[in-house]
From TrEMBL:
Pfam families for the chain: TPP_enzyme_C, TPP_enzyme_M, TPP_enzyme_N
Molecular function per GO: catalytic activity; magnesium ion binding; thiamine pyrophosphate binding
SUPFAM superfamilies: DHS-like NAD/FAD-binding domain, Thiamin diphosphate-binding fold (THDP-binding)
Protein name according to UniProt: Pyruvate dehydrogenase
Domain of life from the UniProt record: Bacteria
Domain (Thiamine pyrophosphate enzyme TPP-binding): residue spans on this chain: 385-531
Entry keywords, A to Z: Pyruvate, Thiamine pyrophosphate
NCBIfam families in the record: PRK06546.1 (NF005114), PRK09124.1 (NF006591)
Coiled-coil regions, chain positions: none
Length: 582
């Protein structure tokens, strides 16, 4: 019986770690591993057209499942293409193992064909990045990489020369049990006692929530009720905290809406829950507002704002310990005032997409997003391109506890939506996956639309086609610059989809939109709806200061739609009805 090869051992360990797919593009140095995948039950090779897509797909799969996913690239240019998607996965805290295969081990350092040094190149976007030089080294390095990716929630990269992958496994090559799940992290007793005192002494408490509140919705609601706190959120916290939330005051930041900004500035104690919110200008600087941050990643504590208390712990465990300790507050005046401000703010902007918008040509993108929200399944996965699509998703896609919203929300890469949809759809072919793509982002990695067709993945791609890089135009406008280099000359994307063998429909009039989306959703395979949208539909933040918009003329605000909030207005009105009347 032939001895097991290193490549086979590598793949076996991936299977033991729960990896079901390896996304990538085949190539010489990678061939031993790909062949081992072919012969190993329980894992599939997913052939994409660009390695960047492989990394985005693996990152999305990891975010949907919460378990390890994997991607691979051949030596030199092949694995270099992984880097953008790996940056996104790492910054999204998605556990991903990347195999960066390497040139023959005897040629490393000698300027060989396609030589790069993956063990150096990927260090900034990974927790662990190492080169395997000998067969005896392999199992321990791979297992260490897996445990770093899972235990620290991010990327690990293993560089493996093709000749080493082809060698036999040595006798007694050490393997050990794998860690494939993370523990809960409870704060220290001293921090809990100090935080309890701060809450009990505060008259006005506001919670601001990020993606770290995943799985803690019930605990956040219970705590908010106990301390009568308004609850705002960052973009990555939206899907976890906004639904069934009678304390909701909206979102802060560049894409924000509602009264979240006011609630975070008019309180006397702001508690940041599981958020690495990056925008310093939107956080309070007044020392009268005390700030507490709770995060499972200690390196994130205090790096965005000054802190009066840093609490190391996951949100669910922290609130479980904290809520019974704090005194129940009875004064709702601050909460009720913020709820009213929130409802008033949404009332004031909702007209931006309701006033005769069904007849406007080009189609308003807000209208597209609102119709999409109404027609999508209750458990749909939305993948969202960076740029203006972030705005439309933030304001119109309604979370309900079952939907998932994935984007490049921290790394901010273009072209992420369709590749992430590939990874999301592979986790469950029966679940509706919708890619909200911009024309710029879609065209950047358009070749991997063929991956949808090749595997028959029923992803629905909705292209918001304004023939421009809309967010970049807004940035230029804000800086007082004329738009330049932002126009796209696009094909009929629906015709391209049909040429690829998929369903394709182009929509230019609002009255045809709902029917086209319904037909696409009914189609059993991949489908694309190319919607021609208004390039003048822009967005501005809810709070504007002169330094944020130097050069943004007042007259220009007439073309800026700083409103439109979808079904969030209904929820705000409902919450307001629950406010006690004197």
């Amino acid at each position: 019986m032939a001895k097991q090869k290193v490549a086979e051992q590598f793949v076996d360990i991936l299977v033991k770690a729960g990896v079901q797919r390896l996304y990538g593009v085949v190539g010489d140095s990678l061939n031993p591993v790909v062949d081992a995948v072919r012969r190993t039950p329980g894992i599939d090779w997913i052939q994409v057209r660009h390695e960047e897509t492989a990394a985005f797909a693996a990152g999305a799969e990891a975010q949907i499942t919460g378990t390890l996913a994997a991607c691979a690239g051949s030596c030199g240019p092949g694995n270099l293409h992984l880097i953008n998607g790996l940056y996104d996965a790492h910054r999204s805290m998605a556990p991903v193992l990347a195999l960066a295969s390497q040139i023959p081990s005897s040629e490393i350092g000698l300027g060989y064909f396609q030589e790069t040094h993956p063990d150096q190149l990927f260090r900034e976007c990974s927790h662990y990045c190492e080169l395997i030089s000998t067969p005896r080294q392999m199992p321990r390095v791979l297992q260490t990489a897996i445990q770093n990716a899972v235990g620290r929630s991010g990327v690990s990269v293993v560089s493996l020369p093709g000749d080493v992958a082809s060698q036999p496994v040595p006798e007694r090559a050490g393997e050990h049990a794998l860690v494939t799940s993370r523990p809960a992290v409870r704060p220290g007793e001293a921090e809990l006692e100090k935080l309890t005192r701060m809450i009990d002494e505060a008259k006005r408490v506001t919670l601001f929530c990020g993606s770290g509140t995943a799985g803690a919705h019930a605990q956040v609601m219970q705590f908010a009720e106990r301390v009568k706190s308004p609850v705002g959120h960052a973009l990555r916290g939206k899907q976890w905290i906004q639904y069934d939330n009678p304390y909701d005051v909206g979102m802060s930041g560049l894409l924000g809406y509602g009264a979240a900004y006011e609630a975070t500035h008019e309180c006397d104690l702001l508690i940041l829950l599981g958020t690495d919110f990056p925008y310093y200008d939107f956080l309070p600087h007044d020392e009268d507002v005390k700030i507490v941050q709770v995060d499972v990643r200690p390196e994130r504590l205090g790096r965005r704002s000054r802190l009066d208390l840093a609490v190391w712990g996951d949100v669910r465990e922290t609130l479980t310990c904290l809520t019974p300790r704090v005194k129940a507050k009875t004064d709702r005046r601050f909460l009720d005032r913020m709820l009213k401000k929130h409802a008033d703010a949404l009332e004031g902007v909702v007209k931006a997409y309701t006033r005769k918008v069904e007849k406007r040509v080009p189609i308003h993108p807000e209208y597209v997003a609102s119709v999409l929200d109404e027609l999508a399944d209750d458990d749909a996965v939305f993948t969202v391109d960076t740029g203006m699509n972030n705005v439309w998703a933030a304001r119109y896609i309604t979370p309900n506890g079952r939907r998932s919203i994935i984007g490049s929300f921290t790394h901010g890469s273009m072209a992420n939506a369709m590749p992430q949809a590939i990874g999301a759809q592979f986790t469950d072919r029966g679940r509706q996956v919708i890619a909200m793509s911009g024309d710029g982002g879609f065209s950047m990695l358009m070749g991997d639309f063929l991956t949808l067709v090749q595997y028959g993945l029923p992803v629905k791609v909705v292209v918001f086609n304004n023939s421009s890089l809309g967010m970049v135009e807004l940035e230029m406008l804000v800086d007082g610059l004329p738009s330049f280099g932002t126009a796209n000359k696009n094909p009929d994307f629906a015709a391209v989809a049909r040429a690829c063998g998929a369903y394709g429909m182009r929509v230019e009039k609002p009255k045809h939109l709902a029917g086209a989306l319904k037909d696409a959703f009914k189609h059993k395979g991949p489908a694309l709806v190319d919607v021609v949208t208004d390039p003048n539909a822009l967005s501005i933040p809810p709070k504007i200061r002169a330094e944020m918009v130097s050069g943004f003329a007042l007259s220009a605000s007439k073309i800026v739609l700083d409103g439109g909030v979808g079904r969030m207005l209904q929820m705000a009105r409902s919450n307001l009805r629950n406010v006690p009347r004197p």
